[in-house]
């Protein structure tokens, strides 16, 4: 430190030295005050910077966390909305497919219902015809039995005719024998027996003709008896066949009756199925509408999520810039 000379003098130089000393002391004081002010300024700047950094750190910690959370939520909402939109589109597509299938099923069910009704009507007609056929076959059995009785009577009559023809044949043989004896006796009588011989020859001729006729009749009766036996056998076969037909008709009638009941049950079930498919079609229509509405809502959510994502990104940039400016201040 420089010493001021002349401080110990009592003259004008001493007074000037005293003044210079005062200036010196004041200068030193000013320098000290300037240094202190500069130090205070530095401390204030450091405290300001620290406060701004603390503010920026706190702001970054709080606001940026919120921005990141908003951005993350926007991203998740966007992904969810995208998935929801895709699901809505798939649901709508499937609902459309199911609706088409339900309409086709309804048409098929209606076709089956109409076919079942026609089948039921056909079965009723078959049942009526089978019942009528059963009655006719029953009548045929009765007629065959009646015809069999008549043919049996015819066979018995033929047998009786055969017995009569046999008796006539025996009489013709005896007549022929008597005519032969008469011819012999007429020959013995000579001229007196000529007339009797003529009669005997006529009787013999008639006996021979009767024997021939009875032979023909016997052959015819035999043929009639054979034909009658064949007719009886055939009628019995016909009766048996008609009986079988009658049994088959009864079985068919029973089966047709059961089939008719089954067909009615099928028709009832088909009608219920038609009602069900109609209801399904209505419900699928509601599902399709709901899916379309959900898809529209999902698209709106997706748009909002995209906007929110863009805004959150913009806000993040603004926050980053603000923090950088605060820290740089």
Outline the structure in words.
This protein has helices spanning 12-189, 194-328. The longest helix has 178 residues, at 12-189. The mean pLDDT is 72. It has 2 helices and no strands. It has one domain (12-328): Methyl-accepting chemotaxis protein (Helix Hairpins), CATH 1.10.287.950. The chain has 329 residues and is mainly alpha-helical.
CATH topology: Helix Hairpins
Query: Termini distance?
Result: 40 Å
CATH homologous group name = Methyl-accepting chemotaxis protein
- CATH class, named Mainly Alpha
Short description:
The chain has 329 residues and is mainly α.
Secondary-structure map:
Blueprint: H1 12-189, H2 194-328
Task: For the structure shown, list the relevant keywords.
single chain; 329 residues; mainly alpha; Helix Hairpins; 95% helix; rod-shaped
